[in-house]
Amino acid sequence: MGSYSPGEPASPDNEATRPLRAGTPARDGAAPSPGNFFVRLRAAWKSMRNPEASPEELGYVPHLRSRLIAILVAALGIACLIIGLSTYVTLQNSLYQQAQSDLKETSHRVVQPTSRDGKREEVDCSDLQKSSSLFAPGQASGTIITCVESEGAVEIASKLAKDGTVQTLSANDQVTLGTMALNATKEEVREVKLESGLYLIKITPKANSSADAQVVGIPLANVQQTLTIFVIVVSLGSIAVMVGAGVAGSYIIRGTMKPLERVSAVATDVAHLDLEEHTISSAVRVEPRDSDPRTEVGAVGYALNQLLDNVNSALEVRERTEHQIRAFIADASHELRTPLAAIKGYSDMLRWTEPLSESGQSSLARIDSQTERMSRLVEDLLTLARLDEGREPKFEQVDLTELVLECTSDMQAAARTHEWHLNLPDEPVEVVADRSQIQRVILNLLSNARKHTDGGTRVTAGLSVDAARREAVVTVADNGPGIAPDFLPKIFDRFTRADKARSGSDGTTGLGLAIVQAIVQAHGGSIQVQSQPGHTVFTVRLPLDARLQPVA
């Protein structure tokens, strides 16, 4: 049914308002966990290069295991690179030395086929053409011989083919070799790229102006092929070694990190413990195998166990202290009820039996006011003490619709400066609860709205049913100035007063909302508050079904 004043009859035409449901906060902050090994490895490598990089920049948050594997693979990669380069340079030098030796032998066969002393003689192209040793047995296939006359004409430009036949070099190769031979001033060995391929050549320049020049060369194809095969084999081997080391290292490091993961699991369990239970179970400890202080991980586990023991001892001390405080408050509250009742009684007797001046009557009224305030404080303390002891409420079937209506009507009669409204369903809403305690919850919330708002404020008491959660929902809303945001997190703490958060002149003890929360929790329910300027609402949820165990 719609909103109406407590004094108005409920109209069947009034529409029931839908209860506001508290939204479920979305889970966030959980980054996707890629299963790709190389993604983790790349992220770990990035984190090593830039330790200050954020998870968004890395694309993945690398674990310590991934970092260690990345370090291992990187170290192996650097080692393979150094070894490969060193071996490549050594092999290259060896092959080129061998090629130079072969070139020298080939040159000797051409210049002086029967001589091994390497003595240089004048080159005569006509003599070379007539020589039967120009491509005598023993010369390697691909060998080239070029002879240039003193006038610059290329007289000989031959190449020994694989089948043993002698072929003529291309015109471009003849020009290249001829130019090099004529321009040479001393005997030299060099590499040259010809159309026939890469060659190592030896240039024998003209001994004098009338002599001829000669170029002898052997192919470097075998050298290049050997070096290429070496690079491929070493590269593939290095990659295989790095991948194998990464996979093997992953398993080895995973096994090595297991104790640390178990310690982390214990720490996570402790982080999710409800310390209101006043103790940490001895089962929540790091296992002895993971708490040996002689190892690095064991030292962490041992320190965590020591920390848990200290926390457990502190919780036990706190529990004993709280128990003593609760017992003292209960005893003190109980003992204070008698003298407060006596003060009230003597005050009434004095008013009835003795003539008092106007000043005396004013003083007596102040005594009554402060006695009543002290009595309320004592009752509040006694109520909290009983709730803290875990005393089970007196459960019975309670019609919340009737109870909300009665409490709002009582509050309207006591505080006519405010506008009081109801928002109730057509059908009765019943729960299993302690009627007197639930009544106190509603009255405390209504009284809280009255005390902390100015006259003329609209206060609405609402009741609805959350069928999906099987809960009755009681709301008390007002359009007052609201509650300061920094005060909301501690609004249900004991002896906490929002003197600066909301207006109002009535003195409060700071226990009203603490009592409300304790009673609601004892009934297995929950209470929430939402506030902004112009709108504050307290929402109490109580289970509709079977009675729940009270919360100690």
TrEMBL record:
<dbReference type="Pfam" id="PF00512">
    <property type="entry name" value="HisKA"/>
</dbReference>
<feature type="transmembrane region" description="Helical">
    <location>
        <begin position="229"/>
        <end position="253"/>
    </location>
</feature>
<keyword id="KW-1133">Transmembrane helix</keyword>
<feature type="transmembrane region" description="Helical">
    <location>
        <begin position="68"/>
        <end position="91"/>
    </location>
</feature>
<dbReference type="InterPro" id="IPR036097">
    <property type="entry name" value="HisK_dim/P_sf"/>
</dbReference>
<keyword id="KW-0597">Phosphoprotein</keyword>
<feature type="domain" description="HAMP">
    <location>
        <begin position="254"/>
        <end position="316"/>
    </location>
</feature>
<dbReference type="InterPro" id="IPR003594">
    <property type="entry name" value="HATPase_dom"/>
</dbReference>
<keyword id="KW-0808">Transferase</keyword>
<keyword id="KW-0472">Membrane</keyword>
<feature type="region of interest" description="Disordered">
    <location>
        <begin position="1"/>
        <end position="35"/>
    </location>
</feature>
<dbReference type="InterPro" id="IPR003660">
    <property type="entry name" value="HAMP_dom"/>
</dbReference>
<feature type="region of interest" description="Disordered">
    <location>
        <begin position="102"/>
        <end position="123"/>
    </location>
</feature>
<dbReference type="InterPro" id="IPR004358">
    <property type="entry name" value="Sig_transdc_His_kin-like_C"/>
</dbReference>
<dbReference type="GO" id="GO:0005509">
    <property type="term" value="F:calcium ion binding"/>
</dbReference>
<dbReference type="InterPro" id="IPR005467">
    <property type="entry name" value="His_kinase_dom"/>
</dbReference>
<protein>
    <recommendedName>
        <fullName>histidine kinase</fullName>
        <ecNumber>2.7.13.3</ecNumber>
    </recommendedName>
</protein>
<feature type="domain" description="Histidine kinase">
    <location>
        <begin position="331"/>
        <end position="546"/>
    </location>
</feature>
<dbReference type="GO" id="GO:0000155">
    <property type="term" value="F:phosphorelay sensor kinase activity"/>
</dbReference>
<dbReference type="InterPro" id="IPR050428">
    <property type="entry name" value="TCS_sensor_his_kinase"/>
</dbReference>
<keyword id="KW-0418">Kinase</keyword>
<dbReference type="InterPro" id="IPR003661">
    <property type="entry name" value="HisK_dim/P_dom"/>
</dbReference>
<keyword id="KW-0902">Two-component regulatory system</keyword>
<dbReference type="Pfam" id="PF02518">
    <property type="entry name" value="HATPase_c"/>
</dbReference>
<dbReference type="GO" id="GO:0005886">
    <property type="term" value="C:plasma membrane"/>
</dbReference>
<dbReference type="InterPro" id="IPR036890">
    <property type="entry name" value="HATPase_C_sf"/>
</dbReference>
<keyword id="KW-0812">Transmembrane</keyword>
